[in-house]
Amino acid sequence: MAEREELFLHLVDAIERAESESQVILVNAVMKALPTSPNAALGVLERRWPREWSRTERHELSGPEGGPVQLEDFRVRLSERAERIAARLLAPLGPGDDADPTGAPPAPSKR
Questions:
Q1: Alpha-carbon distance 78 to 42, whole Å?
Q2: C-alpha–C-alpha distance, residues 74 and 84, integer Å
Q3: Domain ranges of the chain
Q4: Cα(16)–Cα(103) distance, rounded to whole angstroms?
Q5: Interior CA angle at 100 toward 98 and 103, to 5°?
Q6: Nearest residue to 83 (alpha-carbon basis) of 95, 98, 100
Q7: Please, what is the angle between helix 3-33 and helix 39-48, to 10°?
Q8: What is the mean pLDDT of each run of 10 residues along the chain (111 residues)?
Q9: How far apart are CA 103 and CA 86, in angstroms?
Q10: Number of H helices, E strands in the chain
Q11: CA distance 41 to 29
Q12: What is the dihedral of CA 81, 86, 87, 93, to 10 degrees?
């Protein structure tokens, strides 16, 4: 291993050790300060290590009168809207045109 990589690994190890030690120090400070003012140390813990120390909130959604949330399948409305748009776009072509509103080419005529 190159000397530079080895120095980097030592640095990473030292940083991780220092972070662990500082967390232990802060936990001890919280424990000693509990009777008087734990908020300052707790604030540091929450911000520095949010995964372990942050507050979690739970939010629930409900529908009318506390019932389940009603979900709508948008595909039906989207299809209806597409048909209305196609009709408006094809209207200038006039009646009697064999254009398919889906955009499919006309079927070959049989003679």
A1: 51
A2: 15
A3: 3-55
A4: 63
A5: 135
A6: 100
A7: 150
A8: 90 96 90 79 85 88 88 86 92 68 61 55
A9: 9
A10: 4, 0
A11: 7
A12: 170
Read off the pTM: 0.39
Q: Tell me the residue type at 105.
A: P
Distance CA 1, CA 5 (A): 7
Q: How far apart are CA 85 and CA 102, in angstroms?
A: 11
Residue 29 burial class via C-beta count within 10 angstroms: exposed 0-12, middle 13-18, buried 19 and up: middle
- R_g over Cα of the chain: 34
Dig out the tokens for 18 from the structure: 């220092």
CA 11 to each of CA 18, 22, 47, 49, 52: distance values in angstroms, whole numbers, following the listed order = 10, 16, 23, 20, 24
